[in-house]
Amino acid sequence: MNQDIQNYNDSQTESDKAICDILCKIITENLAGAENKIWHAHPVWFLDGNPIVGYSKLKGSVRLLFWSGQSFDEEQLQNEGSFKAAEMRYTNSDQINEEDLKRWLKKGIEIQWDYKNIVKRKGVLIRLMTKPY
C-alpha cells in the first residue's frame, strides 16, 4: 500500500480505519497498475491520469466516490455533484459488499469520463474510449 494512503487510513478512528483498509485492499487488488496517491487530501486511484475511484472521511461516514459512477447504472450508488460522479457511504465495515465493489471497479475501468482534461475543455466532459487494463 502507498505509504501516504496508509498514513491517511491510520489517522482515522478505529471503525473508519477498518472501512478505509478494506476499501484500499479491494480497490488495489482490482485496479492493478493504477496510480494511487493522496489527491486533494484523500486517497484516489487513476488510470492514465484520469481519476477513477477514491474515498474520504466525511462527518459520520466514509464516502467511496466513483468519478464516472452516474454512468454505471447502479441503484446503490447515489449521484454526487454536477458532473458524472456517484458515491456510496459507509458507517461500518460490515456494510461493504465486496462483490458490488468489484463490479463497480470493473465498470470504473470500462466507463470513464475525461476528468483529466476537464479544465482544458472548460468544464465539458467527454466519454473516453477505454482500453482494458
Automatic annotation (TrEMBL):
InterPro entries found in the cross-reference section: YdhG-like (IPR014922)
Domain YdhG-like: from-to ranges: 17-107
Pfam family, one: DUF1801
Name recorded for this polypeptide: YdhG-like domain-containing protein
